[in-house]
Each structure stands twice: as structure tokens, then as C-alpha cells.
Amino acid sequence: MAEWSKNNAACLTTWITLRVLEQSFKVFNDSAAITMKELAYWNTAASDDMRKIQATTLAHQLDNIFIKIRCARYEEGKTAEQAVSDTVTVLIDADKTMNDLAAVIDANYLFLREQLDD
Fold first, then answer.
1. Rounded to whole angstroms, how far apart are CA atoms 83 and 8?
2. Tens digit of pLDDT for each residue in 28-76?
3. Which ranges of 71-111 does DSSP label H, i.e. alpha helix?
4. Pairwise CA distance, residues 113 & 26, whole Å
5. Which end of the chain has fewer CB atoms surrounding its CB within 10 Å, N or C?
6. Stated pTM of the model
């Protein structure tokens, strides 16, 4: 994935969606290095099983917003199940960053701006 950039649809959409969902309130330029454990859903007292449930819920919320509101499509050969699963894998890793999350999202979703560039 390219560097964290407002010109990358996945970076910008990941950041603004997490902000709307009140997961992070940092400005875009300060968000690339935010780790998953810094997002609001992360509960240090939660078990791994509970954290996975919470991450799965958040991944479904992201998927719904991307597909139903942001008019994204799945990348060729990708499915909703795969996109959610890949997103969960990042969300449950405490040290993964928002930039890492955006990279996985970029690999699974084709955003409207990208569709218009085709």
C-alpha cells in the first residue's frame, strides 16, 4: 500500500469512518500510527474471545458503511466474508496501525473515487 495519504481513498475512508464511529478523534495527519489498542473499542480487560467479538462487530460496521453508504464494491475475487475476516485479523492485533488497517481495507474494497478513475 502507498504511504498514508489523503489522496488514497482507503486511507481517507478508513480514517473518517473510524472518526464517525467515535473510535478515534485524531486529525488525519496524526492517525497513520494509531494502534488498534488505541481505538475506543479496545478493552484491555477483555479476553481474546471477547475482543474478537468486538472486532467482528466493528468490522461489520465498517463493511456496512463502505458498501451501503460510501458505495464501495469488493475488489475482484473478494467477498464480504473475506473482507470482514481480513479486517478482524488487523483489529485484534494490538500493535497494528490504522495504516495497516487501511492497507487491508484497500486490498478488499474498491471505493467510489477509485471506480471513477477506472
1. 18
2. 999 999 999 999 999 999 999 999 999 999 999 999 999 999 999 999 9
3. 80-91, 98-108
4. 24
5. C
6. 0.92
Nearest residue to 54 (alpha-carbon basis) of 82, 78, 87 = 87
Helix axes 98-108, 80-91, angle to 10 degrees: 170
Residue 91 neighbours by CB distance under 10 Å: 25
Q: How large is the C-alpha radius of gyration of the chain? A: 13
- Give the contacts of 106 (CB within 8 A, at least 6 positions apart): 1, 8, 9, 10, 11
Backbone angles phi and psi of 64, in degrees to 5: -60, -45
